[in-house]
Amino acid sequence: MATEIYIVRHGETMFNQLNKVQGWCDSPLTVKGINDLKVTANALSQVHFDNMYSSDLKRAIDTVHLMKDANQVSEIGKIKKLPEFREVFFGSFEGDDIEETWNEVALAAGIGPQTDVTKIINQVGIYEFREATKKADPRHLAENKKELDERMVRAINVLHDLTKNEKRVLIVSHGDFIKTLAIKYWNQSDGLHDIVFPNNGSVTRGIIRDNGDFEIVDYNVNAEDM
């Protein structure tokens, strides 16, 4: 049985608002973030889900509970938290100013001063961007392409095992992780260049088939438009 996966990006957080790097570090949802999520939750309130899952970071957990509480047609028990669906890890840059961080990454990539992450990725490619982030990190802890790719594959395998008897589930994850999934599994991405960053509260829809193959079929959609 194939399983339909609704992947929701968490709501806006304090670090999003303050323009700080936010990967495995966490910050609370803002009032705007909560209000935007209520719109998503209301739009999905009549969609039946067999289960709901979440990254183990608090901003994702808070988001999934908003989805659960608003849903009128699903009986969801305890939310299972999946660390495999955490945001990309930015190592020593966690919590730093985002423009200063991207400038250091650009320098490590050999392209000179640049604070626009989209321009950096489009110039050097997403894979070199990951390598440059790890190189620029003083402790070299940031995830590179290989580490992130292995975690994505592990995440899909874990979800496949959990959802074998479920027709439709919702999972809350994070912007860069969802974008990276799309680069790998969405047929409209060429896998090399940047694609638009998913909006807070947006829905990306995928299918996990019986054999474990995963495909994204809708990306960064406003839940009201689904």
Automatic annotation (TrEMBL):
The keyword Repressor does not apply. One of its GO terms (molecular function) is fructose-2,6-bisphosphate 2-phosphatase activity. The active site is at H10, E87. Keywords: Hydrolase. Substrate binds at R9, H10, G11, E12, T13, M14, F15, N16, R59. PROSITE patterns: PG_MUTASE. One of its GO terms (cellular component) is cytosol. One of its GO terms (biological process) is regulation of pentose-phosphate shunt. It comes from the Bacteria. InterPro entries: His_Pase_superF_clade-1, His_PPase_superfam, PG/BPGM_mutase_AS, Phosphoglycerate_Mutase. This is Phosphoglycerate mutase.
